[in-house]
Structures are given as structure tokens and as C-alpha cells.
Amino acid sequence: MAAIRIVETSLRDGNQCLWGALGVNTAKTLTVAPAMERAGYKAIDFTTSTHMGVAVRFKQEDPWERIRAMAAICKTTPLQFLSTGFRFIAWETASPDFMELAFRTLATNGIRRFALADPMNDASANVDVAKLVKRAGGEQVVGALVFSISPIHDDAHYAAAAKLMAASPDIDALYIKDPGGLLTPKRAGTLIPAIMAEIGGKELELHNHCTIGQAEPACLEAADLGVSAVQCASGGAADGTSNPPITRMIANLRAMGHEVLIDDEAAQEVADFWTAMAEAEGLPTGAPMAFDAAYFRHNLPGGMVGTMRRHLADQRVPHLEGAVIEEIGRVREELGWPIVMTPFAQMLQTQAVMNVTGKERWGIIPDEIIRFAIGKFGRPNAPVDPEVMDRIMANPRTRELEVETGMGDLPDLRRRIGAHLSDEEFLLRATMPADLVDAMQAAGPAPRTYDPDTVAVMALLREVLGRRDVTAFEIEKEDFRLDIHA
User: Fold this and answer.
1) Could you tell me the pLDDT band of residue 457, with boundaries at 50, 70 and 90?
2) Rounded to whole angstroms, what are the CA distances from 309 to 140, 312, 326?
């Protein structure tokens, strides 16, 4: 059997699935970086524009600084950026020139591998973006086949998309991206051979989620069928709605007779770090999930189910969960079977809740649904239901959204935002509110080290020092003692 490699996903997908993209900062990233470099991963799923925005908005940290510092440590392990169509940080559609600048700046700062996941599963769009990436200096491009369940997402659909992408000299490998954790071993047994038959000598990887307990057996089946790598998370950042846990996956792959190219000691160190970090920060850790057949109907990623329940609880209608899930399926069919991934997962859920709680179905239509129907997100997989399309086209808001120009052209943005700015600062200011970028710059360089063992002590110190009724206290631990007097 061919050797299997590992793409590590904790910093990007594990962080997003379990911690709402808020669990990671620069200090944590750089602290675990040396072990991640030693582990010998095929790549590190490092960041995406959403995470870069989170770094600025919630951490007051420069995402470019984080990329550069991580790349300086991970000299042999490629850092990956996930791109989802023609958007960067902001939701507005960006021009090809703007996206090429973003890709060039990412590559200049240390991103070597680019994963392209078009929300429409539009293979030709991925081919176009791949050209931009390579022209901008990206070393590796991996084209995504986003897995979904619908009448049109059959093996032939994925085989045709794989053939088109594999024919591109700018796409180096492909991967099956299963955001809902819906790929079963049985379906893998037909899907993967159909794809492999069309991609020649190019490699195929698998990225899936543990949401309904199918990810690990699907990975083992995929390894037997010839995938070159599986994408997994580590320790407390794995399992649950996240990706399969690396240490368990390594053990199971080897038990099935596969060679796994990894430094076990370093991989365990990474896993231990994320578990300790989650425990120190009070963050949830993933656990094995039970099978839930309902996911095959609504296709929602695991994190979106929790969001839906919270929204229904906030509206004091939690009893409508079943009705909303059924409605998501109807809305999805009427909109031509969009893939249930960001941003479409959020759009489908919002429309379904409105349809169930409103006076009539499609009585209220959000702007994002209108943008989808009129092609602002790309070519729909299938035509929108005629009655729904008639409602959308009769909506006065549709005429306003039809003439939207997105972010505007690059020269105009440069003139308006500041021709003197570095590419890094320009890209942030073009896609985020100025006050957030100002606050990030005012915060200065981010801390570079993090020790989960000190989190509880430092929290105690901050609490005690903030009190006026304490004049002296001491902390004692093993051979360490600290006495503080006012």
C-alpha cells in the first residue's frame, strides 16, 4: 500500500468548528509551531480570509505578522490558505485584479499552498482562480470537490468536475471537501474510484468532519482506494464537528496496513498542546459523535445546527426545530440544490426560519438569497424554481442588487483608500472598517509565546490585583512561592 500523509487542520478548521474561529491567536500559533514543523505534515491548513478578519476584529492582531512568523518557523511544511471564490475578508465580490493582489501578498508573506473551494462547486471557476494564484506566485494549488447530497451531486458530477480541474496545469492536486461529514464508506467506495479514473497522476486528498461519526471509517476506506493524504486535527481541536483526530487516525491507518509518514512524538506534542490549551481556556473539546441520519436531509455542517438551535431558542420557538430542518430541504431544492457550506448554509437556514415563522413562505427574502438567485455568487447548480424566481424578481430590492458593482476596481480602491499604503495594510483597509485596523495597529506587535500551565495563575493574579480589599497574598506551588504586599 502507498504511504499516507497528513494535512494538519487544527489552526484553521479545528479552531473554526469547535471554537468559532476565536480560540487561536498569534502566541498560541507560534508556541506550537516548532512541533508542527517537526511532525512532517504534508501541509498545515493555516488560515482563510475569515480567520484573518477575526485576528483583526477580535484579537487586535496583524494577520500578516502571524503568517510571516509562522512561515519563518515552518520552513519545510507548506502553510495553506483556503479561498472560497472571488472574496477576500469582506463578503463583497472582488475583482480578479484585487484577488490576484491578495494571492500575491499571501504568497509573499509565506503562504505556499492554496486550496480553492468554489461555493457552487464550479470547477471552471476554480481553474480560473488557479491561474491567478500561480501568476501571483503561489507554489501549490489544490482544487476542492465539495461533497454534498442531492439529486444532481452524483458520482458523475464529481468525476466531470475532477476531470476539468485535473486538466489544468495550474491545479496540482485535488481534494474531496466534506464540510457536513456526510461521506459514508459506502459512498466513498463509488465516488473515489470515479474521481481517480479522471485525474491521471494527480493526487487526491480527503477532508471530512466527524459530525455524524462517518469521517474515520470513510478515511480508512479512502486510504484503501488510493488517496494520498487525509486532513485531520489534533488533540482538543479534533473530533466532534471538527476533523478526525490525528493520533487515532495514525493508529487505525497503521493497523489497516498503511504506512503513515509522520513524526509520532512531534504529532503527540501538538495534540497535547491543543488539549491543554482548550482545558486552560475553558474551550470545548471534540468528542466522538453518534450517527444522526437527519443530516442527510438538511446537510448542515455541525456548527450550524448549534447556531440554528440558539436562534430558535432566542425567538422562543425551539419546538420548531423539526419544521425548520424539513424546510431547509425544501428551500434548498427550490434554489437549485446549492451546496450547504459557507455562505449558503447560513442563507438556507435564515430563509427556512423565516418561512416557518413568517406569515407565508418566501414572504420575506434576505438580500443574500436574492444575490444568489441573480448569480452574484456564481452559476447556480440548477435553475431556481420558477415560482420562487418570480417572487424574487418582483421584489423591488432585486433591482437595486442587480446593479451592485461589488468592491470596485483595484485602481479606484487604491486612490480612495491610500496609494501610499503597503499591500498588507491596503488589503485590510479595503475589506474591514478603518477603526478596527486602527485598533490593531495601536495594539502593537502580538505576544509570541503562550503557556497553558500559567493561564489559571495569571487569571487569579488579575482578579486579586483588581480588588481593593486585598493588601497581601501569596501563591505557592511545588518549589515556587510568590508573596505580594500592597
Assistant:
1) low
2) 39, 5, 14
User: pLDDT of 87-112, one tens digit each?
Assistant: 899 878 899 999 999 999 999 999 99
Which listed CATH number (3.40.50.620, 1.25.40.10, 1.10.472.90, 3.40.50.2300) goes with 295-402? 1.10.472.90
CA torsion angle 276 282 286 289 (round to 10) = 150
Cα(216)–Cα(198) distance, integer angstroms = 25
Mention the CATH class of domain 5-281: alpha beta
Position 167 pLDDT exceeds 80: yes
Q: What residue ranges of the chain are covered by domains with CATH 3.20.20.70? A: 5-281
**Distant-in-sequence, close-in-space partners of 8: CB < 8 Å, separation ≥ 6:** 36, 39, 41, 43, 44, 45, 231, 232, 233, 234, 246, 270
Q: Is 224 exposed, middle or buried (0-12, 13-18, 19+ CB in 10 A)?
A: middle
Element (H, E) at 303: helix 302-314
Phi, psi of 38, rounded to the nearest 5 degrees: -70, -25
Give residue for cell 479534533. Answer: 238
Distance separating alpha carbons of residues 340 and 248, to the nearest angstrom? 28
Helix, strand, or coil (residue 8) = strand
Per-residue confidence band for 310, with pLDDT thresholds at 50, 70 and 90 = confident
Instruction: Tell me the CA end-to-end span of the chain in Å, nearest whole number.
Output: 67
- How far, in Å, CA of 122 to CA of 145, rounded? 9
C-alpha cell at 377: 455568487
CA distance 128 to 185: 32
Contact criterion met (CB below 8 Å) for 81 and 114? yes
